[in-house]
Amino acid sequence: MKPAARPRVKVCCIASLAEAELAAGLGADALGLVSAMPSGPGVIDEEVIATVAARVPPPVATFLLTSLVEPDAIVEQQRRLRATTLQLVDRTTAATRRAVRDALPGVRIVQVVHVTGPASLDEALLAQEASDALLLDSGNADLAVKELGGTGRVHDWATSARIREAIDVPLFLAGGLRPDNVRQAVDEVGPFGLDVCSGVRTGGRLDAAKLAALLAAAR
Predict the structure, then answer these.
(1) Whole-angstrom Cα distance, residue 69 to residue 204?
(2) Chain-centre distance of CA 147, in angstroms?
(3) What integer pLDDT is reported at residue 65 of this predicted model?
(4) Residue 11 contacts by C-beta under 8 Å, 6 or more apart in sequence?
(5) What are phi and psi of 165, to 5 degrees?
(6) Would you say domain 8-218 falls under CATH 3.20.20.70?
(7) Which strand (E) or helix (H) includes residue 87?
(8) Residue 37 three-state SS
(9) Confidence bin at 161 (pLDDT 50/70/90)
């Protein structure tokens, strides 16, 4: 996939409708809504997810972050919450993604790959099958308590760039992105989109000044 001239920006870990409105008003292209996870920040009640998903105006996309891996469970959750995009934060199979796609026509599927080393390239090449995009993050799905996002860590962007060059679907980059490093990330990786969480927050709350600075630097 060729590098993007202007990366889209997804603001993740949205905690409320007010945060969603703030992020969208500042120019975010997409919002991330975190459902139950084995670890990490940003988890909100499904009732809040459904409310935000219903109220965010187009063309702002809503991403439901789910740690579920069974297709029937993923489909059931999506039908309850009605986000426009599914972000699968744990490993899933191509067969699972095809089953979800068949059951939910029109809902986009973004498969997360956690970059832990050079072997992540091979994982990404497999993960792109039946996915509309990949998202590279800095978790670790092999730990006893899985890290599936929200770590605030930067991973090896050289590996991310190799993955972007090798795959045929759009690539989102996550993991420790902040106003002071996001331009370097864009230049080194060339992602279609950026995914930010802790880098635009102060005291756990979405910080308008930080988000505005990141958007300006990224674009």
Answers:
(1) 28
(2) 14
(3) 98
(4) 23, 28, 30, 31, 32, 196, 197, 200, 206, 211
(5) -70, -30
(6) yes
(7) strand 85-88
(8) coil
(9) very high
Q: Where would I find the beta strands (DSSP E) of 115-170? A: 133-137
Beta carbons of 24 and 189 less than 8 angstroms apart: no
Collapse the DSSP code of 166 into the 3-class scheme (helix H, G, I; strand E, B; otherwise coil) and give the result: helix
Q: Which residue has the tokens 């279609």?
A: 192
pLDDT digits (tens, 9 = 90+) for 6-19: 899 999 999 999 99
Q: Tell me, what amino acid is at 180?
A: D
Q: 151 by DSSP, 3-state: which?
A: coil
Q: State pLDDT tens for residues 120-139.
A: 999 999 999 999 999 999 98
Q: What is residue 61's predicted lDDT score, i.e. its pLDDT? A: 98
What was the pLDDT predicted at 114? Answer: 96
Name the residue with higher pLDDT: 200 or 146: 200
C-beta separation of 184 from 162 below 8 A: no
CA distance 171 to 178: 18
Locate the domains of the chain by residue range: 8-218
Q: Which two tokens stand for residue 184?
A: 């370097």
Position of tokens 């969603």? 20
Question: Percentage of residues in the chain with pLDDT exceeding 70?
Answer: 100
